[in-house]
User: Fold this.
Amino acid sequence: MDLKQEVAVITGATGRLGFEITLALAKAGCQCVCQYHNNLEKAEQITSQIRKLGQNALPVKADLTIEEDIKQMFEQAGSLGTPQILINCAAIFGKTPLEQTNFQQAQKFMNLNLTSAIMTSKYFAKSVKEKGPPLGETQNKSAGKIINIADVGGIRPWADYVLYCSSKAALIGATKSLAKELAPEICVNALAPGIVTWPDDFDESQKKRQLSFIPLKRIAALNEIAAAVIFLLENDYITGQVLCVDGGRSI
Assistant:
């Protein structure tokens, strides 16, 4: 896929990783639809930076746990053109020891970390198939790309994070299922980053312990994750895969 002038929808664009991915897409030539939930200031900041790069940007407020908001987000995205790229980056993270877990917490994690990605994929796929060019006109290249931002915790889960790790493992499963269902028009892949930023409650001993599990002995830089997103978008013969960018943590 040639990313120049393609319309990309990025959920969670105001998050630390989402922000970096969105900027990388803009630098590659994409027009960006930047979904945010409440952080208007950050949304205006990212769209301003994108416009300075010479690309169009549209901030869209949406609650991804409400289907009507997702539908309206894609309707608004149409003002830039038909989206050909969807990056599902919105997520919540948190420690949830089993004895403290309840149904309300579980529903919150699953709704945002899994169900929202499935529903955004639904409306994205509908848009691509209804308005996108026929497959033959793309010279056997996919008309659309979906990348779900999972986590190495969905592959090598941690104790006390059962809801987060379970939701990310489920997102990986959804990625593979959608890759089969949406082919050949749309490629669907997942990215599984390792540690990018330390949890606020981690002390030095906890950081040292986690680094001992990583062969490369360091956490990831944000731009290393963003570069992997660009790689998956530019390759038209990868679908249903999980790319671990984790310093070797998953091996």
Observations:
- The chain has one domain: 7-245.
